Amino acid sequence: MANTSDIRKGLCIRYNNDIYKIVEFLHVKPGKGPAFVRTKLKSVTSGKVIDNTFSAGHKIEDVRVETRSYQFLYSEGDTYHFMNTDDYNQIALQESNLDAPDLLKEGEVVTIIFNAEDNMPLSVEMPASVILEVTHTEPGVKGNTATNATKPATVETGARINVPLFINEGDKIKVDTSNSSYLERAKE
């Protein structure tokens, strides 16, 4: 058993007869009244995201998990196939288990979280950032760079991301997987 002081991003807990992963949390200490923790929980079975507030000191039941590295192979509809980088065993997961499936390209190494009790995969954690090639974007207008102007671009995985005007087709960019935003032009 853990309590609210143990809450951190990525922690898996048992709540309302389901297993949830903590996506966001915020410890709040108001000037008046007791402290509490505001959380955003994602169900690892259905992918549904809920907001919940725990009062300070509330007991939570954490789930013991193991992490393993897997390489993304390919997708078939809503099913994504991964291969263990250690023993080459393959598993197939549903799209709801992935945090950012639109940023996943073939060959990418991800971390899959397994429930230690029954060895069931709970969720897939992407690396903090991925490098993707821009496949389509409109050319930037010369002289329109005084502001932080952006334009939509399509990357090799099919995701649409807003990029600065100086990015052209064929450029490789670094994308933040937590919010699908442009970080920087990738160094070749």
UniProtKB/TrEMBL annotation:
GO terms for biological process: peptide biosynthetic process. Its main location: cytoplasm. Pfam families: EFP, EFP_N, Elong-fact-P_C. The keyword Metal-binding does not apply. SMART domains: EFP (SM01185), Elong-fact-P_C (SM00841). GO terms for cellular component: cytosol. Pathway: Protein biosynthesis; polypeptide chain elongation. It is found in: Cytoplasm. The keyword Protein biosynthesis applies. Residues 130-185 form the Elongation factor P C-terminal domain. Residues 67-122 form the Translation elongation factor P/YeiP central domain. GO terms for molecular function: translation elongation factor activity. It comes from the Bacteria. Keywords: Cytoplasm, Elongation factor, Protein biosynthesis. Involved in peptide bond synthesis. Stimulates efficient translation and peptide-bond synthesis on native or reconstituted 70S ribosomes in vitro. Probably functions indirectly by altering the affinity of the ribosome for aminoacyl-tRNA, thus increasing their reactivity as acceptors for peptidyl transferase. Belongs to the elongation factor P family. This is Elongation factor P.
